[in-house]
C-alpha cells in the first residue's frame, strides 16, 4: 500500500494545495493531509477551521484523510507507516528549500519525497498571499476552495 503524507500549515488551504492533492490521488492508495502545529507560529485560522476546510474540500475522496501533528514529519511517517512525503513546487525557490529538506529526510529515514509541480493557473498562489488578500478585504474566494468561506 502506497501511503503519502502531505504536510503543511494550510492556513488556509489554497487552490494550489487542492490541485496537488487531486493530482496525487491516483498515485497513492492513501493520502494523509497532516496539519503541522508550531507553537511559535501565529495562525490566521484555528486548527479546527483549517481541518474543517480540508475535510469539506475532500469529503468525496475516501483515500484522503486529515490529521494534525507536532514534531518531525518523518516521525509521523514512521508512526503511520507512510513511505512517501508529498510536496508541491511553485517555483525554483520552493525547489531549493524543499530539496534540502527532502535530502535530510531521506538521510535520516529513507522516506522518499515526491514533488509535483503546481499547475500554471495556481502557481502564484500561496497561503501567505491569501492571508494578505483577506486582511485587506480582497476577493480571496478566487484563491481558495469553496469550503474556505468566512462568516
From TrEMBL:
Cytoplasm recorded as keyword: yes
E.C. numbers: 2.7.7.3
Primary location: cytoplasm
Annotated keywords: ATP-binding, Coenzyme A biosynthesis, Cytoplasm, Magnesium, Nucleotide-binding, Nucleotidyltransferase, Transferase
Site feature: Transition state stabilizer: 17
Annotated binding of substrate, by residue: 9, 41, 73, 87
Pathway: Cofactor biosynthesis; coenzyme A biosynthesis; CoA from (R)-pantothenate: step 4/5
Residues where ATP binds: 9-10, 17, 88-90, 98, 122-128
Oligomeric and partner information: Homohexamer.
Name of the protein in its database record: Phosphopantetheine adenylyltransferase
High-level lineage: Bacteria, Pseudomonadati, Bacteroidota, Flavobacteriia, Flavobacteriales
Amino acid at each position: 500500500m502506497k501511503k503519502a503524507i502531505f504536510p503543511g500549515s494550510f492556513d488556509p488551504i489554497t487552490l494550489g494545495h487542492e490541485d496537488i492533492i487531486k493530482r496525487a490521488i491516483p498515485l497513492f492508495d492513501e493520502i494523509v493531509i497532516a496539519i503541522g502545529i508550531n507553537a511559535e507560529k501565529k495562525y490566521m485560522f484555528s486548527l479546527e477551521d483549517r481541518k474543517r476546510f480540508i475535510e469539506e474540500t475532500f469529503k468525496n475522496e475516501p483515500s484522503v484523510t486529515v490529521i494534525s501533528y507536532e514534531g518531525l514529519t518523518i516521525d509521523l511517517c514512521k508512526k503511520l507507516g507512510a513511505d512517501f512525503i508529498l510536496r508541491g513546487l511553485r517555483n525554483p525557490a520552493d525547489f531549493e528549500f524543499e530539496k534540502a529538506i527532502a535530502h535530510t529526510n531521506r538521510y535520516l529515514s529513507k522516506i522518499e519525497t515526491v514533488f509535483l509541480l503546481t499547475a500554471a493557473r495556481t502557481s502564484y498562489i500561496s497561503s501567505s498571499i491569501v492571508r494578505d488578500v483577506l486582511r485587506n478585504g480582497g476577493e480571496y474566494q478566487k484563491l481558495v476552495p469553496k469550503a474556505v468561506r468566512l462568516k
